[in-house]
Amino acid sequence: MQTITTETDYPLNVAEKIQDRLINTINELDSIINLINKFGPDLVVKRGISYERKQATNYIEEAIDHLQYVDTYLYEYAKNLHRLER
After folding, report:
1. What average pLDDT does the chain have?
2. Can you give the chain as a three-state secondary structure string?
3. 26 partner at 20 to 30 Å CA-CA among 35, 37, 41, 66?
4. How far apart are CA 52 and CA 5, in angstroms?
5. Tens digits of residue pLDDT in 24-63
6. CA 63 to centroid of chain Cα atoms
7. Which residues pair with 45 in a beta bridge?
8. Rounded Cα gap, residues 41 and 51, in angstroms
9. Where are the domains of the chain?
10. Which residues contact 67 (CB under 8 A, 6 or more apart)?
């Protein structure tokens, strides 16, 4: 597991780094949805299991929702920690 903190990082800075990674992941998932929709009702294979286009899109949209929740929670948590440090 990669550590992204250093002794000089405030929680808010760490949260911003993680937030950037989450945003990049969300954008990549959005791109996958666009590709799925572009190529029509072909089957998409995920871990050896076939999903129809709509099921795959729903799966990815659910992942995006979870990542956005984590993003918001993490940022608020880091802001509160930063306030406590002052």
Report:
1. 71
2. CCCCCCCCCCHHHHHHHHHHHHHHHHHHHHHHHHHHHHCCCCCEEECCEEECHHHHHHHHHHHHHHHHHHHHHHHHHHHHHHHHHC
3. 41
4. 40
5. 888 888 887 777 777 655 555 555 555 566 777 787 888 8
6. 7
7. 50
8. 10
9. 11-85
10. 22, 25, 26, 29
pTM as predicted = 0.48
Which amino acid, residue 1? M
What's the chain's length in residues? 86
User: Long-range CB contacts (< 8 A, 24+ apart) of 7-13?
Assistant: 10/82, 10/85, 11/77, 11/78, 11/81, 11/82, 11/85, 12/78, 12/79, 12/81, 12/82
The amino acid at residue 76 is E
C-alpha atoms less than 13 angstroms from C-alpha of 59 in its C-beta half-sphere:
13
